[in-house]
Design brief:
The protein has 216 residues and is an alpha/beta fold. It has 3 helices and 11 strands; from the N terminus they run ααββββββββββαβ. The protein is elongated and about 95 Å long. It starts with a helix and ends with a strand.
Length: 216
């Protein structure tokens, strides 16, 4: 064990102090007892600190193992869900093959207000008619039959209820540029996971709302 030498040193120190064999006869008894007590307290403090550090290290190792296991399990679940959805998706007469995004111009950028299309996998463009897509508007994708959505880099805001009621939604990729996600954006999406950057606003949002997330 890493701390064996330290334990031996502390034990030897205690043994020498408690034995009193090195203390001259003239040494004051009270002073000797105080030194012994101080040495014992110091040794116990070191031992306690070492024990706490080892416990913390072990807990962190266990937490990391659990987190990585959950991550790998969730990845497998998402892959299986996407494969099932993809296999079950067949083009039907009347399907909209082209993805149509409705938007408004606000502060020099596009705010997506609606979407038309039946494909379960949607990649939101970074620009619409030359306007950078800055926001997903309120209820823009509400109740749509989506399985996976990739949001563009440069997006800043996802407004209230944007994906509300998308029951089949399992994967939403959110760029690090997002700085605001509104209330109940993913309510009614029981199987959704957010794919986001480690330390990003989206990751903090997922933690706050108890949403499954995969940080990269």
């Amino acid at each position: 064990m890493k701390h064996t030498k330290l334990f031996m040193l502390i034990s030897l120190l205690l043994a020498l102090l408690l034995s009193g064999c090195t203390v001259p006869p003239a040494t004051d008894t009270t002073l000797l007892e105080e030194e012994k007590a101080a040495a014992v307290a110091l040794a116990e403090s070191y031992l306690l600190h070492i024990t706490e550090l080892e416990g913390t290290l072990q807990a962190e190792r266990e937490e990391r193992y659990i987190r990585e296991s959950q991550y790998e399990k969730r990845i497998r679940e998402l892959e299986e869900a996407l494969q099932q959805i993809s296999a079950g998706t067949k083009p039907e007469e009347g399907d909209v093959s082209e993805l149509v995004f409705h938007y408004q111009v606000r502060d020099g950028g596009a705010v997506i207000t609606g979407y038309e299309g039946n494909h379960p996998f949607v990649t939101v463009p970074a620009t619409l008619d030359g306007y950078p897509v800055l926001a997903i508007g309120e209820r823009a994708f509400e109740n749509k039959s989506l399985a996976a959505v990739v949001l563009p880099e440069g997006l800043l805001t996802i407004e209230w209820f944007a994906f509300y009621g998308c029951a089949a939604l399992v994967d939403v990729s959110i760029p690090a540029s997002v700085r605001e996600i509104g209330h109940a954006v993913f309510d009614g999406c029981p199987g959704v996971s957010l794919v986001c950057r480690r330390g990003s606003y989206a990751e903090d949002y997922a933690k706050s709302y108890g949403i499954t997330y995969i940080s990269q």
